[in-house]
Amino acid sequence: MIWTNDPTRLMLVAGFGVSYALVCLAPYLRTRRKRLAAQRAKAEAAASPGWIIAYASQTGNAEELAGQTLATLKLAGIPAQLSELSELCAEDLLRAERVLFLVSTYGEGDAPDAAAAFSGRLMTQGLPLPQLHYAVLALGDSAYAHYCGFGRALDQWLQEQGAQSLFPRIEVNRSSAEAIGQWRQQLSHLAGTSDAPDWSAPAFDDWRLVERVQLNAGSAGAPVYHLELEPLDGALPAWQSGDLVQVAAPADPSRAREYSIASIPADGRVHLLVRLHTHEDGSHGVASGWLTQQAAVGQAVQLRLRQHRRFRLEDNAQRPLILIGNGSGIAGLRGHLKARALAGQGRNWLLFGERNAAHDYHYRAELDAWRRDGMLEQLDMVFSRDQPERLYVQTRLAEQAEAVRAWVAQGAAIYICGSLDGMAAGVDEALAAALGREALDDLAAAGRYRRDVY
Ligand SMILES: Cc1cc2nc3c(=O)[nH]c(=O)nc-3n(C[C@H](O)[C@H](O)[C@H](O)COP(=O)(O)O)c2cc1C
């Protein structure tokens, strides 16, 4: 060891010692600062009156992410509750301090059906919300003209009311894993936790295509096929009428296509109704081409079931049902009719549109049998091209406004399945004309007007 009395050298040694200590200490201090900030965030969040996770979802994506958001906050010890957007009233918002909104967009930039009243009534008012801290996760598909239209409108309205965003709106294009990852990261940051639960979607299972029949030979429309599938391992999973399947076609497994399930578990198989889609250049749709042209009967198909809570019967199982649809939309309605027949519930009115009775009367024998057995109280088949003038379900519905009012007065719920263009909007207008727009919005908010339209 070398001793020295030279003051300059002593200063240098001391200076070096202090710098060295600082260099060693810096990472520790940084980590400690971060830990304290995280603890503070957690304590503040836990002390707040509770977070609200509000979702508006049509086919369940936003709802599923809302459930995962709740699980993440709960894991971090933050009191939080899940709420459908439609359940929130002005008073709730005036009181709330932290709300996470997860909303999708439907129609042409519209809110999901259940949130129509929230969008039409609350969002047209001025509410002072300076106390509200919020974030928006907007789900959508950039192929639509009004990409994330409802999420954007909600965000803008909240800003106009003086609410403060916790972080900029995150837009999720076609369920993009990257955007969902950003949301998850923001949540972890807010909640001061790094151990968020796994959000990955369930894997696809192997099913076998066991039957395929074309239903509309000779039709003026594109070919429609009835398909039956069984799980390869024989264990039939549970589902409810109204649910969907996602099919991963070998040519594009990253973008699953969704189809309504046309059967119930008592059938022992998943039935699908698939219309072959043909592009302008003559090529077939990836999934519809695979399922109806390429996959051989007996071949394995990658499939997973998806709950579609918004289109299930749920509380409506005891109510009379008005089922309205067109084209391949008979799939989702057939699932419900099968469930009703199994439960012995005969108060069903089916109003269905296709082109020609001779070729497009899908499942005619089954519908006739239900009619005979008292499972279909009223059946209105509307064939657009069987008479000189074109006729559609919405025209028939408008003629039946009196009956619609009577059924709804008796507690009926209304289910719509089929095409958005040319059917859903017209049916919506006819229903609004029969019942009043406000009453229809109220039915939607109460889960008595449900749509699976595409
Ligand atoms: C009939 C229909 C209309 C849609 N309209 C829009 C739209 O106008 N803008 C948009 O960004 N996304 C639109 N989408 C895409 C959905 O918002 C997207 O699929 C979202 O993931 C659905 O979430 P959800 O399951 O929570 O309802 C539409 C989807 C369908 C089936």
Automatic annotation (TrEMBL):
Superkingdom of source: Bacteria
Q: InterPro entries under this entry?
A: FAD-bd_FR_type, Flavdoxin-like, Flavodoxin/NO_synth, Flavoprot_Pyr_Nucl_cyt_Rdtase, Flavoprotein-like_sf, FNR_nucleotide-bd, OxRdtase_FAD/NAD-bd, Riboflavin_synthase-like_b-brl
* Residue stretches making up the Flavodoxin-like domain: 51-188
Q: Where are the transmembrane segments?
A: 12-29
The FAD-binding FR-type domain is annotated at 202-314
UniProt keyword Heme, yes or no? no
Question: One Pfam family of this protein, by short name?
Answer: Flavodoxin_1
UniProt keyword list: Electron transport, Flavoprotein, FMN, Membrane, Transmembrane, Transmembrane helix, Transport
- What are the EC numbers? 1.6.2.4
Keyword presence, Membrane: yes
Query: What name goes with this protein?
Result: NADPH--hemoprotein reductase
